[in-house]
Design goal:
This protein has 7 helices and 21 strands. It is an alpha+beta fold and about 425 residues long. It has 2 domains: about 200 residues, Sulfite Oxidase, Chain A, domain 2 (Alpha-Beta Complex); about 120 residues, Immunoglobulin-like. Strand 15 and strand 16 form a beta hairpin.
């Protein structure tokens, strides 16, 4: 695997995905043969892990992954930003299972490095167009009724390096600014009702306590809907890189708006037009103008195997695995193509299929050893269909950064190696 730019490749002819029944039958036959070939009893020489006792429970107070999974880590692209303090690392989606992203592998995006906040001194202030301005300690928040929500968060720049062509070779770099977790905290509606929102209020400014003091204007309707002030992620307290001790969670909205190290919510009657929503996080058009306030992360998907990090080892039965998600709600369908979009097969969705959360899909596939162009496209419950890169460029041009949710294409070479390409 490499993070160096890769050349654009022309579309190559590839095979068509077979029917599920035929593939499952072939896979079962192959598995049966493999089991029969190995059936020879217990090896004479026992491996080390059965010959003696291992460490006890007291030797590892906080659990760590197996040493054989040491390659499953977040990675960054050195040339992407001027410094690591204002940079991003990428989730290894290709090595994960299920829909929840482990906290230690969850991508991070910072604008001034991680803030190291003392929870005993931290306060959340709610003020502006409210009847009762309040300053809440962490103890105050813990005393309020908690809520739990499973939701993905995605950087608006996920895939942003691909506007002009295929650049980086890997699931991790093409779609890895993404993670999904169970978030626990307090409903923002509860907090705003406690403060008493005044008539005429329409917006809320959320501000972080990091050195960048990142702040974003958020519609009041969204804050009263499914937003929460979270203090826990996947069952444990937030980690510093995820906004400890509290962060904003806005299911379906772009990750920059999920303000970390949250210290202030100001209620107002119009947006603030901060630098984070004017000079940044707007969608540039070919005319030079930009679309502002494009909050929702549109339907998106990616095949995680086969992929550049997951090459094929000879012809035979495989399972095409992938992820789909939409900020508009549930994923309704995922289609898979093995010939660059000429033919499509609907892939089964794996439960649970939750709104504004990652959804797994699997499709058995027999690779005949020829070249193939693997694609997937997501359709959400609103009927929105994930677009091609050319369809996006028709509207947005090639100089944009954010909201590139175009169909990703993997070229499977006859060697079994897989690379990132774009097809017209």
């Amino acid at each position: 695997m490499t993070d160096k730019p890769r050349p654009h490749n022309q579309a190559l002819q590839s095979g068509i995905a077979l029917g599920r029944r035929a593939l499952l039958g072939g896979a079962a036959g192959a598995l049966g043969g493999a089991v029969a070939a190995r059936a020879g009893g217990i090896p004479k020489d026992l491996p080390d892990w059965t010959a003696g006792m291992g460490p006890g429970v007291a030797d590892e107070p906080y659990g760590t992954p197996s040493k054989f999974e040491a390659h499953v880590v977040r990675r960054n692209v050195e040339w992407l930003t001027a410094s690591t303090e204002s940079s991003v690392n990428f989730t290894p989606l290709q090595d994960l299972n299920g829909i929840l992203t482990p906290n230690g592998l969850f991508f991070e995006r910072h604008h001034s490095g991680r803030a190291d906040v003392d929870p005993a001194q931290h306060r959340l202030v709610i003020h502006g167009m409210v009847e009762r301005p309040v300053s809440l300690s962490m103890e105050d928040l813990y005393r309020l009724p908690p809520v739990d929500r499973i939701a993905f968060t995605e950087c608006a720049a996920n895939g942003g390096m691909e506007w002009r062509g295929a650049q980086l070779n890997g699931v991790q770099f093409v779609r890895g600014m993404l993670g999904c977790a169970q978030w626990t905290g307090v409903s923002v509606r509860t907090l705003l009702e406690h403060a008493g929102v005044r008539p005429g209020a329409k917006w809320v400014l959320a501000e972080g306590a990091d050195n960048a003091a990142l702040d974003r204007s958020i519609p009041l309707d969204k804050m009263l809907d499914d937003a929460i002030v979270a203090y826990a992620q996947n069952g444990e307290r937030l980690r510093p890189g995820q906004g400890y001790p509290i962060r904003l969670v806005l299911p379906g909205y772009e990750g920059n708006m999920w303000v970390k190290w949250l210290r202030r919510l100001e209620v107002g009657d119009e947006p603030w037009y901060t630098r984070w929503e004017t000079s940044k996080y707007t969608d540039l058009l070919p005319t030079g103008k930009a679309i502002r306030f494009s909050f929702v992360q549109e339907a998106n998907s990616v095949i995680t195997s086969p992929a550049p990090e997951k090459p094929l080892n000879g012809p035979g039965p495989y399972v095409i695995r992938g992820l789909a998600w939409s900020g508009n709600g549930r994923i309704a369908r995922v289609d898979v193509s093995t010939d660059g979009g000429r033919n499509w097969v609907q892939a089964p969705l794996q439960e649970p299929v939750l709104p504004k959360a990652l959804t797994r899909f699997y499709l058995p596939w027999r690779w005949d050893g020829g070249s193939a162009l693997l694609q997937c496209r997501a359709i959400d419950e609103t009927g929105y269909v994930q677009p091609t890169i050319e369809a996006l460029r028709t509207v947005r041009g090639r100089n944009s950064i954010y909201h590139n949710n175009s169909i990703v294409t993997w070229l499977v070479n006859t060697t079994g190696e897989v690379e990132n390409v774009q097809v017209a």
